[in-house]
Write a structure and sequence with these properties.
mainly alpha; two-stranded antiparallel ribbon; 5 helices; binds protoporphyrin IX containing FE
């Protein structure tokens, strides 16, 4: 028997933000991990492309930071739908940890990137999609601080990759094994007609 509901309990805005942030996060993870192969290239054209990708990477990343703050505001203001009643205590704990983990990473990954470029003695400016210069954080420039922030940025990015795998596995389990409406709440086209 399908445990479907007829309407998603998430607002259109919450669903849109979920998918836009997911796309930007995955794009920045892929772009970030590919960066070094451009920057370390001996071909000047590839190097130049690498610097253009960094500017885009920073712009998308700062956008993730802003959209996540908006999404958190909506979540605090409108609450969130309850998890299905058939979930066990352990499943609920895992689901909550994954969701809070995402919020933490969606704030901390861009923030550590911002600290990295703000503290960098190289002092490269950050142009938000070429529209205006994004300010640096008011912190002292230091190779050590910038290097530590870079390490944190990379470790958190790998944690995000692990969390995405867990999150997708959970969503697929809900849809194909539990046959409940959890995935359909975020992809309304998947909604099953109530049996
Ligand atoms: C969703 C947000 C973001 C994600 C998922 C992300 C992810 C990544 C990843 C995976 C790397 C490669 C790490 C490595 O292998 O060393 C990277 C590098 C980098 N990120 Fe981000 N990032 C984000 C936001 C930002 C922001 C907001 C900034 C700065 C304002 C930033 C600045 C940088 C820089 C400068 C590098 C290159 C470091 C280097 O190799 O010199 N990132 N990022």
């Amino acid at each position: 028997m399908s445990r479907a509901v007829d309407r998603s309990p998430y607002s259109r805005m919450a669903i849109t933000l979920h998918w836009v942030i997911a796309l930007l996060l995955i794009g920045n993870l892929v772009g970030g991990l590919l960066l070094d192969s451009f920057l370390d290239s001996s071909d000047p054209a590839m190097k130049k492309l690498g610097f253009q990708i960094i500017q885009l990477h920073k712009s998308f990343g700062l956008t993730v930071l802003l959209l996540t703050l908006l999404r958190l505001g909506i979540r605090v203001g409108s609450g969130f739908p309850p998890l299905p009643s058939h979930m066990t205590g352990l499943e609920r704990l895992l689901a909550r940890l994954t969701h809070y983990g995402f919020y933490a990473l969606l704030l901390l990954i861009p923030f550590s990137g911002w600290v990295m470029v703000s503290a960098s003695p190289l002092g490269f400016p950050t142009s938000w999609f070429g529209l205006f210069e994004w300010p640096h954080l008011p912190i002292a420039t230091s190779k050590e601080t910038s290097g530590a922030a870079s390490e944190v940025h990379e470790i958190l990015a790998w944690l995000a990759i692990g969390l995405i795998a867990l999150h997708v596995a959970g969503a697929l389990k809900h849809h194909f094994f539990d046959r409940d409406d959890v995935l359909a709440r975020m992809i309304p086209a998947l909604r099953r007609r109530s049996a």
